[in-house]
Structure to design on (689 residues):
């Protein structure tokens, strides 16, 4: 006989479970309803993950999520005005920008030839066939963040790029989380690319300063064969925010998927990346930089599955940890038995700027095929004193010499961002962070 | 003018004294050479004067134009007119050479209350100096010293020296690793900077460099001290007889 374990729930977990049952479901068909129910049941069974759950070992969500904040409603004029007052996280010319306030898209942007953009509410009402792709890139039953996103889902965006359409104009999704007291928001974006389509997508995240809001965003991509995506995400969320983010990609044959993620703002941030098959000859590039100070906590957790042969993946993540902050990198490359000739390289490098800063690095390979080339590495270091002396001996003051070296450390990852404006925007955030550090 | 008086230096976190009461004066406009066997403390001397943190000064003074620099940070010493061309220049991945040079020049101009150079002004100046040292302009776009050959790195040191216009230049084994053509380019670069208000301390193991950069004075260093001082003919004598006599004397 197995003993029935009655899990002990925290106040937050009990309140969250109640909110889950009370939340209205977005009517998007039987399949989604089933998945939603499974996610809710999983939450009722497991609660929030503590450090005993392997995937959350270094980010104890049970401890970090201090309350079951009320889900934000549809934003009104006050929220829109506040969103407009926030300094933009990404301000570059030549993009089509769509504002998304508290998960609700503000229109669907200027028309781009070959691109269909609709709200999730609209797509759900039409029971459109594109809904079959929602959640297709990952399994939320085993992941609490995306499970909660689905359970609380109210609206979002569905972006479709027609087969063969190579979109030149970058699309910028400008997320804002606005509120005067703690609240929760669950933005969702589904991007579906037809065969041979190409899209550059930027996401920027900002939010009310000083407010302990919780953002739990899911952005998922489904790429048909030969499709290409360049993705840059800037998480410049509010300084008291808890920012959970899930990026998922389902990759067809010969697809190219490149994503860069910057974390530079929230009190707690966790960015999770799930990529998987079915395609052969995929080309995957995942990179990022996380800048942490004070008591911030920043986690990048990625799980890349090579499910077919001849895939290439390159992962490079840089973490800068100052003061008493904590950085986390967990990366796992899985190579299925049939995925011969996979070429995977993953590296995490952390730069520690203070004695009380902490970094948890866990790169892993799980290889079931025998003819592959995979490597991973993790380094944790401090600023090179000899390099600092070299720069200072040229008259560069210590703070500026440090900034130069830190900037170059991040630059090693950011230099692969294909869009020059986006790359410059990332480095501008880095320079601003360094400037704040020095002043 | 550089005056070093009774300098005693040890490694900061080791019980190892390297300089044992070193005395040396380099006057304005003078080119002084220090020759000495490996391990005699030449690089240590250059690092201590430039302000590297790994050393502890036990006694003595280092005066640059009459001001004791030992309490200053390395960048302040640079702003006061000091320049060290490193024996082993460092690679700075991710920082374009041009970016680094501009940061250095403008940092010093700022400390001297001079206006920062605009980018076009600066590029013009760098290109002219680079051409003079046969430095390919493409190199300036690459990360500082990364993947440069030994000779290219040494030329890059002289380029920085030319741009920063120091009053006291220390060249630590600038000749090592150079073939004869590169040696001539570097020496010409240094000679072009000779001026009555600029002094040089040229550290070398071999006499060869001093055929191209002809010194006014030659000092022999051994065991962390200057053990003999003479004119340029002293270099030739060392070349003929080696350092044996001086190593024993130390
Ligand atoms: N940072 C250091 N730590 C330990 N030993 C050192 C250090 N720097 C120099 N030394 C030692 O000091 C002595 C002098 O070295 P150095 O100044 O490099 O001589 P030179 O340049 O004349 O060859 C050598 O024995 C060297 O090993
Ligand atoms: Mg030496």
């Amino acid at each position: 006989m197995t003993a029935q374990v009655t899990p002990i729930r925290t106040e937050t977990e009990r309140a969250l479970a109640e909110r889950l049952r009370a939340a209205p479901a977005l009517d998007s068909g039987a399949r989604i309803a089933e998945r939603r129910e499974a996610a809710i049941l999983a939450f009722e069974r497991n609660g929030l993950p503590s450090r005993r759950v392997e995937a959350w070992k270094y980010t104890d969500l049970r401890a970090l999520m201090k309350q079951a904040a009320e889900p934000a409603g549809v934003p009104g004029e006050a929220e829109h005005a506040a969103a407009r007052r926030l300094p933009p996280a990404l301000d570059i010319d030549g993009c089509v920008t769509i504002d998304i306030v508290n998960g609700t898209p503000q229109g669907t942007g200027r028309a781009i030839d070959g691109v269909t953009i609709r709200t999730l509410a609209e797509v759900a009402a039409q029971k459109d066939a594109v809904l079959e792709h929602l959640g297709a890139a990952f399994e939320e039953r085993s992941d609490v963040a995306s499970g909660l996103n689905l359970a609380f889902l109210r609206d979002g965006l569905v972006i479709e790029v027609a087969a063969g359409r190579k979109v030149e104009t970058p699309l910028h999704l400008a997320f804002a989380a606005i509120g005067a007291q703690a609240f929760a928001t669950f933005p969702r974006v589904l991007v579906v690319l037809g065969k041979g389509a190409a899209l550059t997508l930027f996401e920027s995240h900002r939010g009310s300063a000083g407010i302990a809001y919780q953002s739990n965003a899911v952005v998922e991509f489904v790429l048909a064969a030969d499709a290409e995506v360049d993705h840059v995400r800037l998480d410049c969320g509010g300084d008291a925010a808890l920012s959970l983010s899930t990026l998922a990609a389902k990759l067809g044959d010969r697809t190219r998927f490149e994503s860069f993620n910057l974390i530079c703002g929230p009190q707690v941030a966790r960015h999770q990346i799930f990529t998987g098959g079915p395609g052969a000859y995929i080309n995957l590039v995942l990179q990022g930089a996380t800048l942490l100070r004070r008591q911030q906590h920043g986690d990048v957790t990625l799980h890349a599955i090579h499910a077919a042969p001849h895939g290439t993946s390159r992962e490079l993540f840089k973490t800068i940890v100052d003061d008493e902050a904590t950085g986390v990198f967990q990366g796992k490359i899985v190579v299925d038995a049939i995925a011969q000739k996979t070429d995977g390289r993953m590296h995490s490098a952390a730069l520690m700027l203070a004695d009380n800063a902490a970094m948890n690095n866990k790169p892993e390979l799980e290889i079931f095929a025998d003819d592959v080339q995979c490597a991973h590495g993790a380094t944790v270091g401090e600023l090179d004193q000899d390099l600092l002396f070299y720069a200072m001996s040229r008259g560069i003051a210590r703070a500026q010499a440090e900034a130069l070296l830190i900037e170059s450390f991040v630059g090693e990852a950011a230099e692969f961002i294909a869009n020059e404006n986006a790359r410059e925007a990332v480095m501008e955030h880095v320079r601003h962070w360094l400037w704040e550090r020095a002043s | 003018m550089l005056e070093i008086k009774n300098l005693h230096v040890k490694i900061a976190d080791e019980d190892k004294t390297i300089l044992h009461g070193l005395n040396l004066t380099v006057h304005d406009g003078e080119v002084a050479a220090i020759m000495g066997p490996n391990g005699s403390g030449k690089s240590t001397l250059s690092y201590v004067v430039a302000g590297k943190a790994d050393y502890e000064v036990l006694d003595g003074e280092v005066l640059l134009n009459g001001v004791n620099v030992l309490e200053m940070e390395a960048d302040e010493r640079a702003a006061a007119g000091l320049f060290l061309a490193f024996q082993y220049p460092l690679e700075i991945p991710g920082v374009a050479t041009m970016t680094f040079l501009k940061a250095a020049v403008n940092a010093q101009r700022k400390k001297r209350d001079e206006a920062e150079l605009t980018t076009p002004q600066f590029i013009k100046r760098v290109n002219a100096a680079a051409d003079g040292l046969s430095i390919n302009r493409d190199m300036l776009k690459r990360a500082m010293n990364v993947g440069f050959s030994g000779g290219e790195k040494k030329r890059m040191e002289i380029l920085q020296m030319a741009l920063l216009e120091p009053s006291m230049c220390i060249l630590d084994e600038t000749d090592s690793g150079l073939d004869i053509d590169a040696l001539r380019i570097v020496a010409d670069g240094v000679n072009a900077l000779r001026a009555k208000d600029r002094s040089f301390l040229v550290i070398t193991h071999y006499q060869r460099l001093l055929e191209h950069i002809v010194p006014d004075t030659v000092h022999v260093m051994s065991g962390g001290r200057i053990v003999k001082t003479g004119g340029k003919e002293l270099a030739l004598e060392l070349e003929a007889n080696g350092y044996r006599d001086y190593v024993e004397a130390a």
Notes: The pocket of adenosine-5'-diphosphate (ligand 1) is lined by residues B 11, 14, 16, 18, 36, 38-44, 54 (CB under 6 Å). Residues 384-439 of chain A form one domain.
